[in-house]
């Protein structure tokens, strides 16, 4: 579980680097949105993983598979954190990623294609979680 959260952190920080190194104000604003959204979302997800570990004693995804059925509130919090992590509409990550798509298109079309692939892979990690 911790690895899935950490891999999504790597994906978000690569977007931040793209925005900062683009030297475009839109890219820097997008990087700022992603940093704030990631800080809120990632810390919540690591906290959720810690709750799983305290109750079950395992950090493995398959050992904690049915735990969310015991606690509906924890299920809702986990869903909101995972959807925010994959840039669902009411999150700061969505606004940052939209700005990053525009910024990467202004730089190069190749960056846009790489960003799309990276965003899809990050969403798959979040859906798996």
TrEMBL record:
<dbReference type="GO" id="GO:0008137">
    <property type="term" value="F:NADH dehydrogenase (ubiquinone) activity"/>
</dbReference>
<dbReference type="GO" id="GO:0031966">
    <property type="term" value="C:mitochondrial membrane"/>
</dbReference>
<keyword id="KW-0812">Transmembrane</keyword>
<comment type="function">
    <text>Core subunit of the mitochondrial membrane respiratory chain NADH dehydrogenase (Complex I) which catalyzes electron transfer from NADH through the respiratory chain, using ubiquinone as an electron acceptor. Essential for the catalytic activity and assembly of complex I.</text>
</comment>
<keyword id="KW-0679">Respiratory chain</keyword>
<keyword id="KW-1278">Translocase</keyword>
<feature type="transmembrane region" description="Helical">
    <location>
        <begin position="73"/>
        <end position="92"/>
    </location>
</feature>
<dbReference type="GO" id="GO:0042773">
    <property type="term" value="P:ATP synthesis coupled electron transport"/>
</dbReference>
<feature type="transmembrane region" description="Helical">
    <location>
        <begin position="98"/>
        <end position="125"/>
    </location>
</feature>
<dbReference type="InterPro" id="IPR003918">
    <property type="entry name" value="NADH_UbQ_OxRdtase"/>
</dbReference>
<dbReference type="InterPro" id="IPR001750">
    <property type="entry name" value="ND/Mrp_TM"/>
</dbReference>
<comment type="similarity">
    <text>Belongs to the complex I subunit 4 family.</text>
</comment>
<dbReference type="GO" id="GO:0003954">
    <property type="term" value="F:NADH dehydrogenase activity"/>
</dbReference>
<keyword id="KW-0520">NAD</keyword>
<dbReference type="Pfam" id="PF00361">
    <property type="entry name" value="Proton_antipo_M"/>
</dbReference>
<protein>
    <recommendedName>
        <fullName>NADH-ubiquinone oxidoreductase chain 4</fullName>
        <ecNumber>7.1.1.2</ecNumber>
    </recommendedName>
</protein>
<keyword id="KW-1133">Transmembrane helix</keyword>
<keyword id="KW-0830">Ubiquinone</keyword>
<keyword id="KW-0249">Electron transport</keyword>
<dbReference type="GO" id="GO:0048039">
    <property type="term" value="F:ubiquinone binding"/>
</dbReference>
<dbReference type="GO" id="GO:0015990">
    <property type="term" value="P:electron transport coupled proton transport"/>
</dbReference>
<keyword id="KW-0496">Mitochondrion</keyword>
<feature type="domain" description="NADH:quinone oxidoreductase/Mrp antiporter transmembrane">
    <location>
        <begin position="1"/>
        <end position="121"/>
    </location>
</feature>
<keyword id="KW-0472">Membrane</keyword>
<feature type="transmembrane region" description="Helical">
    <location>
        <begin position="31"/>
        <end position="53"/>
    </location>
</feature>
<keyword id="KW-0813">Transport</keyword>
């Amino acid at each position: 579980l911790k690895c899935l959260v950490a891999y999504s952190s790597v994906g978000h920080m690569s977007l931040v680097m793209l925005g900062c190194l683009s030297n475009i104000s839109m890219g820097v604003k997008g990087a700022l949105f992603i940093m704030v959204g990631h800080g809120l979302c990632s810390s919540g997800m690591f906290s959720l993983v810690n709750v799983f570990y305290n109750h079950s004693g395992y950090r493995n995804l398959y050992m904690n598979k049915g735990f969310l059925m015991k606690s509906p509130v924890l299920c809702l919090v986990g869903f909101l954190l995972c959807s925010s992590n994959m840039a669902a509409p009411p999150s700061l990550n969505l606004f940052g990623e939209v700005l990053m798509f525009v910024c990467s298109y202004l730089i190069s079309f190749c960056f846009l294609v790489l960003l799309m692939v990276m965003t899809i892979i990050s969403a798959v990690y979040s859906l798996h979680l």
